């Protein structure tokens, strides 16, 4: 029975991997978009992490995770006799499937190795496989998702080293050295999860210097390689040994220095020290958090999760996705309630929680952003796209269209200022275009992308020609929820939910303005 349940949950995970939800801009801007600009000819936009004087993001982990699959995909594309570049959306879905496969294989395999009891192993695998975090976050291209896999496999390697004969630990120690450095360059939060588990290695390496030499040598070599790749990426000219010695780019150090400055963290939002424990962990675990405090099973996995939570709680900027590595570690370290009745109640609540959050985060959360970019990439007249009250769209998905299409992300700009920008960018209104798709033959066109829940626009959309602007709806996508538009304080709970949920969806309007010089030419 449990095998059939597990296979069903794998299919659920695949379904969500192939859903276009958009959980956070970082899933594109901190990974795929950077490498896509290196391998393909897609014009891309590098965020501040890559363009600042002291860059804080390493490209070293991006190459094996995203670069190699993209290179393989390009080789297959050219090998099949195709001309031109691969459509970016094909690369996008390939990476989603890749994240599904990597998570399905490596995460589940790690749990299988870390738990020796067959009965507890089956429970742990099912709990992790049925978590909406596994369905959604782990199938998206987050550095946090990669961090989850790296943490899990470091724990596997630690268990192998401590519990194996001496002659078999040199290889495991070498691999651990490579993987650990990879984890640090992927995210500087990574060592927090190995503070307690790493203590088990100290007495072992004291007695086995050869294995210690192996992990140190592998770590130093990998560090040198990572620094060389980062220095080559961020240096505008071909690097020399002098650059590596005198001007190396140390992205983990830059990242640490940046995040130790409270003024920098304030730009991204400050949180109380208990944000992770009281808000983020229950948001990720739901009813699983109840078992963590009532039915924990002490293990290396749980110690790893605890050390990570404690260290990350010191930081004043705390996002839920920072705790992704703790989810499989905690769910594999809890037991069900002793009472059969409580177990049934807990199981039902677990299913309901993950169904709701899986649907919300895996299907509806900013779900129209990716399809909207694909639509705009096919609009021949699009030269200006204004995105309002959405997440920043991935530029590389425009399939080269961004050479002529300027994307303006105005975030939550005030309505009157939005109209001012649209008035400045809008092209002249042609009455004949209102009855057909003749506008597609125009050389220029301005488009507004906004959630349907943005009621401020209603008066302008209904009153055509108001303030000289005309909005023509050309595209609509219903599976989109704008969770950043919740305003319970001003609108009240019911009115806010009625607006955001009841009017869910994302729309695209072609915006034109009345031009006096053209008024008399269409009589």
UniProtKB/TrEMBL annotation:
<dbReference type="InterPro" id="IPR005599">
    <property type="entry name" value="GPI_mannosylTrfase"/>
</dbReference>
<keyword id="KW-0808">Transferase</keyword>
<keyword id="KW-0732">Signal</keyword>
<keyword id="KW-0256">Endoplasmic reticulum</keyword>
<protein>
    <recommendedName>
        <fullName>Mannosyltransferase</fullName>
        <ecNumber>2.4.1.-</ecNumber>
    </recommendedName>
</protein>
<feature type="transmembrane region" description="Helical">
    <location>
        <begin position="345"/>
        <end position="364"/>
    </location>
</feature>
<feature type="transmembrane region" description="Helical">
    <location>
        <begin position="90"/>
        <end position="111"/>
    </location>
</feature>
<feature type="transmembrane region" description="Helical">
    <location>
        <begin position="210"/>
        <end position="229"/>
    </location>
</feature>
<keyword id="KW-0328">Glycosyltransferase</keyword>
<comment type="similarity">
    <text>Belongs to the glycosyltransferase 22 family. PIGZ subfamily.</text>
</comment>
<dbReference type="Pfam" id="PF03901">
    <property type="entry name" value="Glyco_transf_22"/>
</dbReference>
<keyword id="KW-1133">Transmembrane helix</keyword>
<dbReference type="GO" id="GO:0016757">
    <property type="term" value="F:glycosyltransferase activity"/>
</dbReference>
<keyword id="KW-0812">Transmembrane</keyword>
<keyword id="KW-0337">GPI-anchor biosynthesis</keyword>
<feature type="signal peptide">
    <location>
        <begin position="1"/>
        <end position="25"/>
    </location>
</feature>
<feature type="transmembrane region" description="Helical">
    <location>
        <begin position="170"/>
        <end position="190"/>
    </location>
</feature>
<keyword id="KW-0472">Membrane</keyword>
<comment type="pathway">
    <text>Glycolipid biosynthesis; glycosylphosphatidylinositol-anchor biosynthesis.</text>
</comment>
